[in-house]
Specification:
The complex is a heterodimer of chains A (671) and B (487). Chain A is an alpha/beta fold and 671 residues long. In chain A, helix 4 links the parallel strand 9 (147-150) and strand 10. In chain A, strands 3, 4, 5, 6, 7, 8, 9 and 10 form an 8-stranded mixed sheet that branches. Chain A has a 6-stranded mixed sheet with strand order 12-11-14-13-15-16, sandwiched between helices. A 3-stranded antiparallel sheet of chain A has the order 17-18-19. Chain A is elongated, with a radius of gyration of 39 Å. Chain A starts with a strand and ends with a strand. Chain A has 23 helices and 23 strands. Chain B is of the alpha+beta class and 487 residues long. In chain B, strand 18 (425-430), helix 12 and strand 19 (453-457) form a beta-alpha-beta unit. Chain B is elongated, with a radius of gyration of 27 Å. The two termini of chain B are 40 Å apart. The chains are: A alpha/beta (671), B alpha+beta (487).
Chain lengths: 671, 487
């Protein structure tokens, strides 16, 4: 049963309605805006379990990760209120909410999004390094926005400083640039922080712990999640400030928040060579602002042991003075009373010690562990892991664009050019899925060249010309020409191949064949030319014959056709083997004798109409040429002159008007 | 991508071109100059490894005809980010072209020790010698900090400038340029001990210099000595930057690339503009960021940086000591540093052969190329009696499919398996993240199949925990963490 709806908004919030009976639409869960404004957040809490955000940029995978996280944290509504994507187009984006689906609005401009969602106070900005400056500056114009995470790497340092200057003056918290973001277990996760779902479950990020961390590196923040989970009751909140020289907020900004937050009991700081931000934390400890225990380490201690300067992965990780080296930082932090391990490898042990001390003192009371939630695995990921399979709706056996290089029937496109296999070679790969001998490719090319055009007067060209002159586009003009190809126009190829092959295979002698056809009152397709004759041969036919005789291993069909021609020309001089007939029988020879096809395959291809394909492909060249020619000549709309049409109309019997349909009276045609 | 040092010649070209063109932040005391600076005279000479030194010098005479001017005197010096060249005897002053040529010939391509670093001299700069009266040398330095840009200035420039932090007058220009100090403020803070007569000229210059600094997104700029010779009525001055060190923000290429390029184009340097037979994206050559002195990019390093430039993933390789025993193949910008730290703190800093990382979800093929390059370098070096150590490490990936990237590593391992055994290479693996179980299982299986000396760990092991295990004797037996079992 479909759920009752009001104003199109589904009101049930408990899950899909009715057992398996609804349409796909019923499986979509919709969330309405909160009925009353939320109470203001406390100063120290950047995020909570009702935080709502915008994601700037089209990042469906990251958004899905955030929604999955929200779901296993048992949030009532998703943390993502909407997506801002200025290149727009789409109005909604379909996401999963647990096993059901939900729709997220997609906005093309910020003003609109902000007006619609007054409960949003943070943005995850995925804009590129080129556009992140303008978008962030724009976002900061809205007083509603209190924090922005900037993911992009490679933001120019001047622009980053301008952003952080404005942010500071407006009291906005910037996380990043060049970061993965941050996470508040059980409440909110920025973008891709924490990795995939299995890692979030492994590091117990679905429920809060007591350890708050701030790290420079985004990649290492995931390592911290793991270390903290293994050596304490878990992460309370974690922020990666980003590896650039000028992060929007630094260690001290977040550590001061953790100091204020009664639920953060223990602080972990992972610093790095470069910059002086660790010293601000040291000062705050010295002046008594920070009193909570801190476990810290600055990575990059090896830098001073190298002979030349090495730029590490992060833009900011380069020491410009002794003070900025990791070794001096570690020593200064230790001197200030921070728990600093001897090496980073010893950090887990130090953390475990400090934690168990706090438990002993009663500062931290470990909570009973909730049951780890389950989240359905994503189809694409499960497939990548090889856990599931499903029958494919389509099969393709000729080309593959998924890998490093485009493949034609298994042949990389670079080899196609390296081996200079030509159009004929490409056709043999794509049409027949195999390499044919070189002469075969050249023969195919020859056919294309010979069939490319046959003057403006033939039906196909005429149609194309008329359509072009009616002002239509290339494709319409080309197609209107191609549509004339069939049993009468251009179809001689197929017909000739069929008749000649049938006769040959039945063992009819050429004379018997001609006689049978005459008895049946049938013309032999491929025989006869308007003007050419035995004494005035068609040069195109001569070219094909010569090539085939010289290159093909055998050409029994051609020999047969020539014998037929001898019979027919003895009756009338212009009943020669024409170019269509010649190409057709030679093509049959090719299929049968080149060694690449079995007899059945050769038969099959001919039945599929491959010869017609050859004509269509070749003639397209000419039809496009006619289109371009007419355009170039700027010819106007064509109208056929009246005097070139014989009008023969039926005269209607009198009293026809008013008769019922079909009973208008007799229609007579008088000649 | 970050703040990167540039060649002295490039820095000078940019200043010379943009000094009159960059929009000043506030009006300066002098009227804007009606003409632009003439093209700067910077003869840049590069001596490749197999270069014919004489040939390069002769060719320079055609490219830079002013070298052959009669009675002209020149300065010659290597231009390879070497600090304090004067003190290392790497500065030839007041030489004729013949003398300068001889001086360069003697040094070009030769190994040179500068303090602790040894490197070949390959890039030289020759420019006109500027004779100047006493008391016209200054020192100026602009550097960027979080809140703004510091301008440091003293009236005593030159080689013996001494401790500028102590001596120089300093002003912080806030990031918000609407708060740019007034001319009076600049003069009263920076030009304390400079005669009043040249104040206007200097303020004009400093303001313009700062405008270029902003407009072309420098992150560091030091000119020492800066020579300012005012004209008779002190309404303008001849300014020469005799020595210069600068860094540009490489990430700003998309904003400033055009400006950097045009200043370094042949037109701006007074050279004939070659007939365009190649389409380039800007009006000049793209900016080049040279490797620090003493660390020429090897073929392998260039190969990896080329590979890096072609993909969205990140592939980095720096060879520190090609004969080192300890090699790393680590995923992730942070984790790679942690590994280098761990190796250094275990006492193997001198034995650490490379720093590098691959991250940002590279494909199997990219990982294969990267791994092959590292393995190739490792196995090309002579064998070591104690064998070698290879760390295939990494943190907990965020979204990289570990099994996929490990396929690339495994492919590379397979190719060189016999040599790995021959060189007695211990392989230590630690990695986690999406699908790590599969990745670790595969690599372990290959290790057993090829009889490699391999130890494999997952997320239970600390990110760089395998380093002390491998390098500190006796540590392995005490370690409680079990190797990855493959289930």
């Amino acid at each position: 049963m479909p759920a009752p709806t009001t104003n199109g908004v589904q009101t049930n919030g408990t899950g899909p309605s009715g057992p398996q009976s609804g349409s796909a639409n019923d499986r979509i869960q919709r969330f309405s805006a909160p009925s009353r404004p939320l109470s203001p957040r406390s100063e120290h809490a950047l995020f909570h379990d009702r935080t709502r955000c915008f994601v700037y940029g089209l990042q469906p995978r990251a958004v899905q990760g955030m929604l999955d996280f929200d779901f296993i944290c048992k949030r009532k509504s998703p943390s993502v209120a909407g997506i801002i994507y200025t290149f727009g187009g789409q109005f909604v984006s379909k996401m999963y909410w647990g096993t059901s689906e939900t729709l997220l609005p997609v906005y093309q401009d910020v003003t609109n999004a902000i007006a619609k969602h007054t409960d949003v106070d943070t943005v995850v900005n995925f804009a590129s390094s080129r556009s992140v400056y303008t978008s962030t500056m724009e976002l900061m114009n809205f007083p509603q926005i209190k924090s922005i995470a900037i993911i992009a790497e490679g933001v120019p340092e001047r622009r980053a400083r301008e952003i952080l200057y404005v942010a500071k003056s407006k009291g906005i918290t910037i996380i990043g640039p060049a970061t993965v973001g941050g996470i508040k277990p059980g409440a909110y996760k920025i973008g891709n922080t924490g990795g995939m779902m299995d890692n979030i479950v492994a590091s117990k990020l679905y429920r809060k712990g007591s350890v708050a961390y701030v790290s420079k590196s985004g990649g290492m923040s995931n390592e911290l999640n793991n270390i903290i989970c293994q050596n304490s009751d878990g992460v309370y909140e974690g922020v990666a400030i980003g590896g650039d020289r000028y992060p929007g907020t630094t260690f001290i900004d977040h550590i001061l928040r953790y100091q204020e937050d009664p639920e953060a009991k223990l602080i972990v700081l992972l610093g790095e060579v470069g910059g002086v931000e660790e010293y601000k934390v040291i000062e705050a400890i010295k002046d008594g602002t920070i009193t909570k225990p801190i476990v810290a380490w600055a990575i990059g201690t090896c830098a001073s042991m190298f002979k030349t300067e090495v730029q590490f992965g992060h833009a900011g990780s380069m020491a410009n003075s002794q003070l900025e080296t990791a070794a001096v930082k570690n020593k200064s932090m230790k001197d200030a009373g921070i728990y600093v391990p001897d090496t980073f490898e010893d950090m887990p042990a130090v953390l475990a010690n400090v934690y168990s001390d706090l438990v002993k003192k009663g500062t931290i009371k470990p909570q009973p562990e909730p049951v780890p939630p389950k989240i359905p695995i994503d189809y694409s990921w499960a497939q990548e892991l090889g856990l599931i399979r499903k029958p494919a709706a389509f099969i393709s056996t000729i080309s593959d664009d998924r890998g490093q290089e485009l493949l034609y029937a298994g042949m990389p496109i670079s080899d196609v050019f390296k081996e200079e296999i030509g159009i004929g070679g490409v056709m043999s790969l794509l049409w027949f899925r195999r390499r044919l001998p070189n002469y075969a490719g050249r023969f195919l090319e020859m056919v294309l060249m010979l069939t490319a055009d046959h003057g403006p007067a033939v039906s196909g060209a005429m149609n194309t010309i008329i359509t072009t002159r009616a002002g239509k586009d290339l494709i319409s003009a080309l197609v209107s020409g191609l549509l004339t190809i069939g049993s009468r126009f251009g179809g001689a190829l197929d017909g000739a191949a069929e008749e000649f092959t049938k006769a040959f295979d039945k063992g009819l002698s050429p004379r018997d064949f001609v006689d049978t056809m005459r008895k049946e009152n049938k013309l032999i397709p491929g025989i006869g030319h308007r003007v050419k004759s035995r004494n005035n041969p068609d040069l195109r036919v001569e070219l094909v014959k010569e090539f085939v005789k010289k290159n093909f291993p055998a050409c029994k069909m051609l020999d047969y056709a020539i014998a037929v021609e001898t019979v027919t020309t003895s009756k009338k001089d212009n009943l020669i083997l024409n170019v269509d007939g010649c190409v057709a029988v030679c093509f049959v020879d090719l299929m049968r004798n080149c060694g690449a096809f079995s007899a059945e395959e050769a038969e099959d291809y001919l039945k599929m109409g491959v010869l017609n394909g050859l004509f269509v492909l070749g003639r397209s060249i000419g039809l496009i040429a006619h289109y371009l020619d007419q355009k170039r000549l700027r010819t106007g709309l064509y109208r056929h002159p009246w005097d070139d049409i014989t009008y023969l109309l039926p005269t209607l019997a009198s009293g026809g008007t008013g008769g019922a349909p079909g009973k208008e009276g007799r229609v007579e045609v008088s000649l | 991508m970050s703040a990167k040092s540039i060649l002295e010649a490039d820095g000078k070209a940019i200043l010379n071109y943009h000094l009159t063109r960059a929009p000043v932040i506030k009006p300066t005391p002098l009227p804007p100059s009606a003409t632009h600076n003439p093209p700067s005279r910077l003869a840049q000479l590069y001596f490749a490894e197999d270069a014919d030194v004489k040939g390069v010098l002769d060719a320079a005479e055609t490219t830079y005809p002013w070298l052959l001017q009669k009675d002209a005197k020149f300065v010659a010096k290597p231009d390879q980010l070497i600090k304090r060249r004067g003190k290392s005897g790497l500065l030839a002053l007041n030489k004729t072209w013949e003398q300068a040529k001889a001086w360069i010939e003697e040094r070009a391509g030769k190994e040179q020790q500068v303090q602790t670093v040894k490197g070949a001299l390959r890039q030289f700069l020759v420019e006109p010698f500027v004779p100047h009266p006493d008391g016209t040398e200054y020192y100026i330095n602009i550097n960027s900090v979080r809140d703004g840009d510091n301008i440091l200035f003293t009236a005593e420039g030159g080689v013996d400038v001494g401790d500028v932090d102590e001596k120089a007058k300093k002003i912080l220009i806030p990031v918000d340029l609407s708060q740019f100090p007034s001319n009076d403020e600049l003069a009263s803070t920076l030009l304390h001990d400079v005669p009043k007569g040249v104040h206007n000229v200097l303020i004009d210059f400093i303001s313009r210099l700062y405008a270029v600094y902003v407009d072309c997104q420098f992150t560091y700029l030091e000119i020492n000595p800066l020579v300012v010779i005012p004209n008779a009525d002190a309404t303008s001055a001849e300014v020469h930057f005799l020595d210069l060190a600068a860094k540009l923000d490489q990430t700003a290429d998309f904003e400033c690339g055009v400006k950097w390029a045009v200043a370094r184009g042949p037109a701006a340097l007074g050279q004939p503009v070659p007939k365009a037979d190649k389409v380039s994206i800007d009006a000049g050559p793209p900016m080049e960021f040279p490797a620090p002195f003493g660390r020429e990019l090897s073929k392998e390093e260039s190969y990896i940086s080329e590979l890096d430039a072609k993909t969205g993933a990140s592939l980095k390789l720096t060879v520190l000591n090609s004969k080192g025993r300890v090699w790393t193949l680590v995923a992730g910008g942070g984790a790679s540093v942690v590994y280098a730290d761990a190796i250094a703190s275990a006492g193997f800093a001198d034995e650490l052969a490379n720093y590098g990382e691959y991250s940002g979800a590279p494909t199997e093929t990219q990982t294969y190329y990267y791994a092959r390059t590292v393995l190739d370098l490792m196995l090309r070096a002579p064998m070591h009696p104690e064998g070698k150590v290879l760390f295939i490490g990494g943190g907990i990936a965020n979204f990289t499919n570990v099994a996929a990237t490990f396929k690339g590593v495994i492919r590379a391992l397979r190719e060189v398996a016999p040599t790995l055994v021959e060189h007695k290479v211990q392989i230590w693996v630690r990695r986690a993240g999406p699908n790590y179980q599969e990745g670790l299982k595969n690599i372990k299986a290959v290790g057993e199949e090829l009889k490699l000396n391999m130890h494999v760990y997952g997320p239970d092991m600390h990110v760089s925990g395998i380093v002390p295990l491998a390098l500190v004797p006796g540590k392995k037996d005490k370690e409680p963490v079990k190797e990855f079992s493959g289930h």
